Amino acid sequence: MRQKIDQEVSVVMYYSARKKMALPHLISWQNKEYRVGEIGYHHKFREGRTLFHIYELTDSEHSLWFRMKLNTDNLHWIVEAISDGYGD
Amino acid sequence: MDMEISKKEALTMHVDLNSCFAIIEQQANPLIRNKPVVIAAYDTPRGMIIASSYEAKALGLALGLSVADARKIYPGVIVMMPDPEKYFDANRRFSKVLNKYTNNVVAKSVDEFAIDFEGSPAIRAGMTMEEIGMKIKEDVKKELGSYVTINVGIAPNRFLAKLAAGLNKPDGMDRIDHANLREILSGLSLIDLPGINYRYQARLNLNGIYTPLQFLDSDLDKLKKQVFGGIVGYYWYLRLRGYPIDQIDFGRKTIGQQYALGQRTMDINEISKLVMKLSEKVGRRLRSANLTAGGIYITLGFEGYKFFGHRQKTKERIFATQQIHFSAMKVIRLIDISSKVTNISVTVYDLKDLKYRQISLFNSFEADLYSIADASDEVNNRYGEFTLTPALMANMQDVIIKRVAFGKIE
Question: Is the terminal CB of chain A with fewer CB neighbours within 10 Å at N or C?
Fold first, then answer.
């Protein structure tokens, strides 16, 4: 089931000079830490002049999917939605 | 005299993303891969399905079905709302891959492209069309993700290339040329041909044409004088024989926005508010393309599948949101709204480049409109859509959300 969340969340992100990519690595949400597994899709868009990055990813156990939004103006992260991969 | 089938080299390619929106969602969320996923305009029971994954299609969850009906067929179906920004991004990446091989790439819609490889560097380097097709498939996986697959069709013209791309979905690659055209057509029905809908099929049947082969073998006179009338019949005659009749691209002719009402209404004030938001969206697109319009076309859908459409030329050329809204409401006020409205669309036509701004000597209001439109666009460009809106649109931020058009992209 997919659930809308829209909450600020703590994220550890790292930059890989080899891959030339910045990627979220660890998500701390609701007193639980999730290591990032597969990043399914990453895209960017602007709302006015603010650039947002959207990362859609699973935890390393492939049990939960997160839609994460990074606001590049203030570098705050929001978890927008989660899903366990099943229908409603 | 009968014209023979074109022996021109097959250098036109049609590529389309398989089940575009659904497969992009499955790429983005690995937990829903290989599962029935539908994208619906709204995820409420009355929302209509606009895209289905292959797994959903196999269950009969087809386009146009409501979410409620889909859940009756398969209660575990995963229903999602569209994510236009993500699909635009996928379209850009898809386009980037294709432009590596040639600049003769034409976007036919958000998920399909026609490419002309004649004289391209890849062909000059000695690659075959099939080798280029395989390379594009690999590159799409690198750019969009490993779950994303495409169909590739190769032919001497766009029509046959599109037909070839649809032969072996998903992840297919097929060629149609003079050597196998008859054999391929013999295995298809009329409705399998791109551009032949049920109405055209009925028209062909009325003239004794029941199969694509009979269509191919029909003489030009019959197609021109009996079946289609005039030039359309001539185009079909050439198209079926592999001649490049669809390579001409016409410029943008209309800009429109449509909205299916979540809460159906007969209240003219409510309708006016929705029309204002549609007008703002149309106006923004019109102005960003530096165009003005000379007419407006309104459609209203009513409960009971009734439909009303009316077009009207405008006195002056229009470009500002207020002008579009005013013209639209002028048309709507002529309509007898005796049942609840389910659907509204606002389209402007007769588009021309805004080369200069002609301001009436006796109407300073027009000069004000230019200034208001410019100022409002500048604020919205900087701070996001609908930051500054006409008063009529107050508290409507989440009504009429961004949508992806299925039609041709210019």
Answer: N
Boundaries of domain holding B1: 1-179
Four-point Cα dihedral B36, B40, B43, B47, nearest 10: -120
The answer to whether residue B183 scores a pLDDT higher than 90 is yes
Under DSSP, the state recorded for B133 is H
pLDDT at A6: 95
Flag whether B406 is in a domain.
no
Domain boundary at B151, B179, B207, which? B179
Q: Could you give the CA distance from residue B300 to residue A88 in angstroms, rounded to a whole number?
A: 33
User: Cβ(B17)–Cβ(B112) under 8 Å?
Assistant: yes
Number of domains in chain B: 3
Q: Is A33 on the interface with B (CB under 8 A)?
A: no
B227/B233 Cα distance (integer angstroms): 7
pLDDT of residue A72: 96
Residue in B29, B86, B382 closest to A49 by CB: B382
B409 pLDDT more than 50: no
pLDDT at B400: 57
Task: Transcribe B242-256 into DSSP letters.
Answer: T---S---PPP-EEE
Which residue of chain A comes nearest to B143, CA vs CA?
Answer: A41
Distance CA B180, CA B314 (A): 52
**Considering only CB atoms, which chain B residues are within 8 Å of A86?**
76, 78
Residue B217 maps to which CATH number? Answer: 1.10.150.20
Amino acid (one-letter) located at B375: A
ipTM of this model?
0.96
* DSSP per-residue letters across B25-91: HHHH-GGGTTS-EEEESSSSTTPBEEEE-HHHHHTT--TT-BHHHHHHH-TT-EEE---HHHHHHHH
Residue B410 pLDDT > 50, yes or no? no
User: Residue A87: what pLDDT?
Assistant: 83
Q: What percent of chain B has pLDDT over 90?
A: 44
Q: At B289, is the secondary structure helix, strand, or coil?
A: coil
The residue among B97, B103, B74, B87 whose CA lies nearest residue B28 is B87
Of B76, B80, B88, the CB nearest to A86: B76
The token duo for B404 is 């992806």
Average pLDDT of span A12-36: 94
Contact B189, B212 (CB under 8 A): yes
On whether both B245 and B264 belong to a single domain, the answer is no
Distance CA B226, CA B257 (A): 37
Q: B51 and B6, same structural domain? A: yes
| Residue found by looking up tokens 């097929």 in the block | B174
B387 closest CB neighbour out of A45, A48, A84: A48
Residue B193, SS3? coil
